[in-house]
Amino acid sequence: MGDLSEDEFLFHATAVYATGGMLLSGDDLTAITPARLALLRKLSPPTGVPARFADGSFRVGVADLPGRRIFCLLNWSDAPETVSFRLPGRHRIRDVWSDADLGVHPAGVVSQVLPARSGRLLAGTPAP
Questions:
Q1: Is the separation of the CB atoms in 103 and 87 below 8 Å?
Q2: Which of 78, 92, 93, 116 has the maximum number of C-beta atoms within 10 A of its C-beta?
Q3: In order of start, what are the domains of the chain with their CATH numbers?
């Protein structure tokens, strides 16, 4: 993964997280950047809970974990795309990879623009 663009690296990390299970790296971890190593650490330990994808496009997967819902967003395209998912209720959303707080969102559809061949991992926790 050392020669992947940042977007492609996030795509693969999101896809691995969505499996719920395996962490594998063929890279020389002594040569990986600190930012990428920190991201790989977020994959460990695996959750053991695979994301459920609504259809065969594998663009939006949802994993329900204790106290939070994880949204695995994947853009398989060579162009930027808007990827949308539905919140069942009011949630605070956090970007797992960047640790950015994306605020509280009401129930309904949330849309994110993803760069070409990229992924985002968003954690939603119920909000009052």
A1: no
A2: 93
A3: 6-126 (2.60.40.1180)
